[in-house]
Amino acid sequence: MMSETTTGGRSAQRFGSVTRLLSNHKGEYLRLHADVWPDVRHAIRDHGVVNHSIFYFDGLLFRYYEYIGQDHSKDSDAMAQDPRMVDWFAATDRCQENALGHAGPKWSAAAEVCHLD
Q: What value, to the nearest 5°, has the Cα angle with vertex 57 and ends 51 and 63?
């Protein structure tokens, strides 16, 4: 789910989502994220994503990020096709399953219920 804020003179949209980490891939997932590939860091920024964080709790991953580009849908689609990201998603997606237990996207949108600047 998305909401908007203005920070430092720039307009940013905030996004949160959740997925389930497969227990047999926890070590692999944590190792990958302990040292995110430099090309992945650059691709994320190149597609307008800043302040990106992933939190772990009891088998669940919660992702938060801010988007500062002009067209989130277009940039998200472009990032999914970015050669720098294709290999990263192949490595990380196999470690996850939809938190709601159904087919479809691994990450499910979460609604923002409170934000304080």
A: 25
